[in-house]
Amino acid sequence: MSTQNSPPIVQGKAVDSVAVPALNKRRQSASAKKQRTAAAVSPDRMSLDDGVYARIKQMILTGQFAPGRKLAHQHIADLLAVSRTPVRQALERLYQEGYVIRIPARGYFVAEIDSHEARDLYDVRTALESYALSLTMARTVNGDKQLKRLAELHEIYAKQVAKNAIVDRISSDRDFHVYLASLSGNEYLVDILNAVFERIIMKRRIDGYWSSEKRGAVGLREHQQLLRAIRAGDASKAKRILESHLREAWVQYEAHLLQLAVP
After folding, report:
1. Is 65 left (phi over 0), alpha (psi -120 to 50) or beta?
2. How far apart are CA 112 and CA 67, in angstroms?
3. Does domain 43-110 fall into CATH 1.10.3720.10?
4. Which top CATH class is 115-261?
């Protein structure tokens, strides 16, 4: 039997030739709607939002936006040459992360970090790094590649200590510790540790504290001891060195906080 003039079948039902154009039109409309939805969250849009967020956050971390400062949408939009929309989204994101506070009917303000939060941050940092190290020592570490990179970061830190480049030294110290934590293979832990470091650095900028040249030399020696223990596979010794290193860093900073509290 010939089927040349038979109507098309859709979901078990015959569709006459007049209905086919209407069906195709609906399909095209649905396809166009999907494309518009995808365009609404295009990579360019996401890139702009992330870029504005990163720039505002950097201004907070570097002290360009001081603690307690009001963050006016239009002022920041003009400063960054963008519309208010990505600024509003960035401020809400920073509010969720604790870098700014939101006061009803008043707007957003740069958050302030007190000494209690600083203590909590160091406690969390110690817990995260200690746990990350235990994971690292329990798994197979590629000594030829991963430990070589750790040693390179240590050398960068040593150069900053020698130059007494305090700000760069703090940054290279963070790089050393975050990379060491990354050897654990736990990406979520590393993300949290990065966030903790940002808050600690922000607090130091607020207080004008970058520790002493002497602390830099001591920290360098402790890094060397830690590297040797890791290379030797001595997990318990490596953990003792790391925890002592972090404890001493807090002691130095706490002394600074106590000095600030003296009237």
Report:
1. beta
2. 5
3. no
4. mainly alpha
